[in-house]
Amino acid sequence: MALVNMRDMLYHAHENSYAVGTFDLVSLDFLEAVIDSAERCRAPVILSIAEPHFSHYDFELMMPAVEAVAKRASVSVAIQLDHGSSLNSAIKAINLDCNGVLLDTSNMSLPDNINATKAVADMAHRCGVPVVGELGYVAAIEGESAKQHPGETELTIPAEARAYVERTGVDCLAVSIGTMKGRGKLDFPRLKQLNQTVKIPLVIHGDTDLNEDQFRRLPSLGIAKINYFTGPSDAAAQTMRE
């Protein structure tokens, strides 16, 4: 199957009520483990390169390896810039062959978030690359993520989500419905309303501590993409300590 269009992948998932796992990579070990697991499960997967992690590795050196693995994989693979912070970040990622962009300007006011996201979406769509916008704020309570995402979680408001999607033209929307490491209480009624309101694939992150029943329920309410990093990161750290 190899490298496929991320928009096609996520719309197929949304229309058929399943979700695609998205995994941030911080080394070749992570890359090999994610692809090996996806192939053993015969599952599509999104390989994710997160801008907040660029202090740990060279983005330009990582991308050729990620692309090579994606092209020879036996399952469908897409490559995403995760938590991109600006138009320039998105341009660089697309030039390095990311075929999806998640822009994280959720810490901005709604008008500024809309303007920043629309600029990226307009550019990326001219390149045939889909964009995931983010509305609502998912805070973290411990570790490195807490420094990158401080403060209080703000849940996504359906009326704002409708306006955001209409004005930006994003292909998918990352929402905040109560996920936070250490607190797995989800607002499923809010998620159902968001799904009915925006009618595009939805994305969730900050979901490390969710249980299997919660994960299985998410796709039926519009979640087509599940970002998952802290779990594999904690497992890798534990293995190294042992």
What does this structure look like?
With 242 residues, the protein is of the alpha/beta class. Helices cover 45% and strands 18% of the residues. It is built from 10 helices and 9 strands. It has helices at residues 6-15, 28-41, 59-72, 87-95, 110-126, 143-148, 158-168, 188-198, 212-217, 230-241, and strands spanning 2-3, 20-24, 45-50, 76-84, 100-103, 131-135, 172-175, 202-204, 223-227. It has an 8-stranded parallel barrel with strand order 2-3-4-5-6-7-8-9, surrounded by 6 helices. Strand 2 (20-24), helix 2 (28-41) and strand 3 form a beta-alpha-beta unit. Helix 7 packs parallel to helix 8 (188-198). It is globular. The mean pLDDT is 90.
Quickly describe the structure:
By secondary structure, this protein is of the alpha/beta class. It is 45% helix and 18% strand.
Provide the descriptors you would attach to this structure in a database record.
10 helices, eight-stranded parallel β-barrel, TIM Barrel, alpha/beta, 18% strand, 242 residues, 45% helix
Question: Averaging pLDDT over every residue, what do you get?
Answer: 90
Topology as H/E string?
EHEHEHEHEHEHHEHEHEH
Protein structure class: alpha/beta
Name of the top-level CATH class: Alpha Beta
Distance between the termini: 36 Å
Number of helices: 10
Helix and strand topology:
Blueprint (H helix, E strand, L loop, with lengths): L1 E2 L2 H10 L4 E5 L3 H14 L3 E6 L8 H14 L3 E9 L2 H9 L4 E4 L6 H17 L4 E5 L7 H6 L9 H11 L3 E4 L12 H11 L3 E3 L7 H6 L5 E5 L2 H12 L1
Parallel strand pairs: 1-4, 2-3, 2-9, 3-4, 4-5, 5-6, 6-7, 7-8, 8-9
